[in-house]
Design goal:
alpha+beta, 93 residues, single chain, globular, 3 strands, 3 helices
């Protein structure tokens, strides 16, 4: 049986084999965007932090720091994935 990352990798390769995925973060994948360097994967920071808190028993501050330093801070070239903080709807009301 294929992992979620393997399924995501295969799906994206059919669209554009140059899309770089963040290993182990298929649960946080939310879409694609186009940059001057090409199409890149987009991930939810909220989903990443929630997963780190749930699966790695981190508190919010530790999970956020880990995400910024080890995940977002990992530059993998021109098509490095984008990480998005979604603004809650309540903000706009």
């Amino acid at each position: 049986m294929k992992t979620d990352n393997e399924k995501l990798e295969e799906f994206l390769a059919e669209l554009d084999d140059g899309i770089v995925i963040a290993d182990g973060l298929a649960h946080a994948f939310i879409g694609l965007t186009t940059t001057p360097d090409g199409v890149v994967a987009v991930y939810s920071t909220e989903r990443i932090i929630s997963n780190l808190m749930e699966n790695d028993a981190m508190d919010f501050e530790s999970a956020e720091e880990h995400m910024h330093y080890n995940i977002i801070g990992a530059n993998v070239g021109q098509r490095t994935p984008v990480f998005v903080d979604v603004i809650p709807e309540e903000f706009w009301k």
